[in-house]
Amino acid sequence: MSLNFGRAQLSIPGPSVIPDRVLNAMHRASPNIYEGELIDITASLYPDLKAVARTKHHAAIYIANGHGAWEAALANTCSRGDKILVLVTGRFGQGWADVAGRTGIEVETMDFGMQDAVDPQRLCDRLKADNTHEIKGILTVQTDTASSVQNDIPAIRKAIDDAGHPALFYVDCIASLGCDRHEMDDWGVDVMVTACQKGLMTPAGMSFVFFNDKAAAAQEHADLVTNYWDWHPRANPKQFYQQFGGTAPTHHLFGLREALTMLVHEEGIEQAWKRHDTSARAVWAAVETWGCLQLNIADPSRRSRAVTTVRSQGDECGRLRHWCEHQGGLTLGIGLGFAEKGQPVWEQVLRVAHMGHLNPVMLMGALGTMDTGLKALGIAHGSGALDAASTVLANHSAV
């Protein structure tokens, strides 16, 4: 007999848990799309989106998922036949590379595997060898949700500068924005893409591209841009509809307004980063105490604060994930990207999300359910995982 009789919890790395306040803000009749409240609310979003991205430059909103943001970033800055270098540390860097290749861009990848971050020295050496500057763009993810690695974006920027290379620097922050520290302007990022369904706590359906003046100027030489993907009317509209290439995503905008109020004006982005850091460390403490599961990224400084990828020697991860969902009401993320690279099959990988709308009740509930599942399945594990996690949470106020 199942214990799963109550409110289920989603702990996958996106879409994340949507706050009731956001859902309530969206639960309304369709508004006037030509004047009034919707236009005013939309205008209020841009300063807050830029505050989260830590940029004073341009922002464009798309009715699309993260894949749409990938394509928009490329379409506005590249031409067919241009060469880009993609730094892969999991599945999603390769995904961006695949999108680029299908548009006619020449793609070179540097693959750092599923358990390591980008090596800045390798990048610097490759760029120094590009004497004719054939490489027009360098792409990477800050957090890859498959591996849960967090790349050192300032170190990558320094490698580009040390090589004296003029390529545009693109960063995918779809999983990391609002969870891991990101400083677009201070870190020298030219183009940053993200989406609404993770750290921004809004139902999937909108994505965002932030770009500086150097990136904006690149469109003069780009032949991939089309009417829909063109970021200039979205970032500098003469009429309201141009911000969305047509009808606005009305209810998503109402939800995003509430989510940004919570994140920017009530909690504050600096505190949100600290909260995510504490939550991540609590998860790591529990996994390390169990002992039967292993953290995919060995170096804590290279681990995401939004998601943790966990591996097992046998099928323990798959069995635990199934028990948690069907017996405990907790949905954990499946493994992605490992089997394709000759690594363990998905039964040996699970992912625990700790992004967005999350407090100790939710986090300890997830860890407690996992601990219960290990016991129910007879998987040998160390004791004291919940004590270790709660100690991390208890020390948050001292951070």
Give a quick set of tags describing it.
single chain, 7-stranded mixed beta sheet, globular, 399 residues, alpha/beta, 12 strands, 5-stranded mixed beta sheet
From the alpha carbons, calculate the radius of gyration and give it in angstroms: 21 Å
* % residues in beta strands: 5-15%
Instruction: Report the principal-axis shape.
Output: globular
How many helices?
13
Describe the protein.
Strand 5, helix 6 and strand 6 form a beta-alpha-beta unit. The protein has a seven-stranded mixed beta sheet, sandwiched between helices. Strands 1-11-12-10-9 form a five-stranded mixed beta sheet. The chain is built from 13 helices and twelve strands. With 399 residues, the chain is α/β, with parallel strands linked by helices. Helix 2 packs across helix 9, helix 5 runs parallel beside helix 6 (153-162) and helix 12 runs antiparallel to helix 13. The model has no long low-confidence stretch (mean pLDDT 96).
